[in-house]
Design a protein that fits this description.
alpha/beta; 3 helices
Length: about 120
Amino acid sequence: MASLVRHVTIDCSDPYTLATFWAAALDSKVSDEDRPGDEEALVETAGSGLLFVRVPEPKSAKNRVHLDLQPQDRGRDEEVERLLALGATLVGDHRNADGTGWATLADPEGNEFCVERASAERAE
């Protein structure tokens, strides 16, 4: 059997705080075993977990790997607004007038991620 991705690990300066943002973004929760100040914090998701690990150096360049989110119960633009309200920032707006495209956001520590169209929007 081939390997499975168990966690996507994200380096950061404050694992618990960043995990809290991502837990809210993904309608999940931070592991009951993790606490503020811990060296790592885990958010379980349907496919695999996001593991946030404290590192001493700050983020200094564009991510080499990023997450692409596809909203499940709301449209892309509504999801972008929800994530901005949670603390994300808009990095690049690649949404087109015909409804195609995506938005690139950054989490509170500057890690980029994209928000694509929802399945229902793709079917239109």
